Amino acid sequence: MANGFTVVQADPPPKVTRPKWQLWGAVIGAAIVWWVVYQQLQPLANWLTYELIGLAPESHLGEAVAFFLYDVPKILLLLAGMIFVVSTIRTFFSPEQTRALLGGKRQGVGNILAALLGVVTPFCSCSAVPLFIGFVESGIPIGVTFSFLIAAPMVNEIALVMLLGLFGWQIALLYFITGLIIAIVAGIVIGLLPNVEQGVEDFVWQMQVGSSGEPTTDLSWDSRFSQARQSTVTILQKVWFYVVIGIAVGAFIHGYIPENALANILGKNAWWSVPVAVLLGVPMYANAAGIIPVVHALMEKGASLGPVLAFMMSVVALSLPEMIILRRVLKLRLIVMFVGIVTTGIIFTGYLFNLVL
Q: What is the DSSP annotation of 180-214?
């Protein structure tokens, strides 16, 4: 009784669960729409650039605009799809299970396991944010997390097969070993930095996407997809603007730096060719499988293997779009340290390739 009125506690509305066929029909339908839209991005970008806007296909501006109009929706679609898939998968693994796999291992062992897990995991660099958040909220050390994030895009199983076919098993094996070593060593060094946890943005520690106290085995598919959808919307709202900026930089590089000039720079057998190759790769965005045909074309034009592979590694592990995305979850100090450590490892690898091949 309050002020003469009886206060009645209203029961919460009953939770509505959709039938399974309806739920899976919606998910499959959304996946089909996603695939159809993704397949039409290239012709749509070309039509907008060359037909609607009227830019010449052979012009630098035309190439840059077409690249931008294609890559912005492509990366955002890939990012949305990857976040949704990763977040759904994460609902099957509680923080305790993940911590038991990696977090309980001592320094070094955890980095090796994380790097090996990254090699066999088909994640690209655009999935860095949901993966990072998931690892942090699972209690995995920051250094171990970085070993995974570096190895996942850098050492790609498709890239290994393509390198084997184009250059032989020696180069493929050396690529695998050096990429793995960079991921492990970089993660260990980052993990040993003082107060490294302070380099992570506060909102990451506060996010609890898919990590409620209820057992993962008891969640319905409706709940799993609902958590994944919420995670996708939240993260996209935080990163989309930075993705657009990063792709704009990459579009400028794509349109205004000729491939012949790039091959000439990478082909000079000078001490500065490897560091320059790394710097050239940073503003670009591609996964390892996508950049290898470019590597092959550069090699055919006379580029040296050391600078070219250093270029490839910097594209997939240090791309500007990924750094801009990671900036949403890492503070500038930790980003700078991460870039510096990985860059040092890639430069060493480039010189190693020049030395042994």
A: HHHHHHHHHHHHHSTTGGGGB-HHHHH--TT--SS
Instruction: Tell me the average confidence (pLDDT) per consecutive run of 10 residues in the chain, 357 residues long.
Output: 47 56 83 90 90 85 86 80 77 61 69 81 58 73 84 70 73 85 89 82 62 55 83 77 72 70 68 84 65 68 78 79 76 84 85 79
Indicate the helix (H) or strand (E) that contains 119.
helix 109-119
> Over the stretch 29-57, which tens digit does the pLDDT of each residue have?
888 999 999 889 889 999 998 889 888 88
Of 337, 95, 96, which Cα lies nearest the Cα of 195? 337
Task: Show Cβ contacts of residue 222 under 8 Å, excluding neighbours closer than 6 positions.
Answer: 17, 18, 23
DSSP string across 82-108: HHHHHHHHHTTS-HHHHIIIIITSPTT
**What CA–CA distances, in Å, run from 65 to 47, 139, 266, 285?**
11, 43, 26, 16
Length of the chain: 357
Does the reported pTM lie above 0.70?
A: no
3-state SS assignment for residue 70: helix
Q: Per residue in 213-228, is it b (16+ CB within 10 Å) or e — as a string? A: eeebeebeebbbbebb
Question: Which amino acid is residue 202, in one-letter code?
Answer: D
- Terminal-residue alpha carbon distance, the chain: 86
CA angle at residue 277 from 274 to 279, to 5 degrees? 115
- The strand pairing partners of 5, in sequence order, are 2
Half-sphere exposure of residue 272, counting CA atoms within 13 Å on the CB side? 3
pLDDT tens for 161-208 read 667 766 788 888 888 888 899 889 888 988 888 888 788 877 776 654
Helix (H, G, I), strand (E, B) or coil at 6: coil
**Strand partners for 330:** 200
Q: Please report where in the chains the tokens 């039938």 appear, as a residue.
A: 19
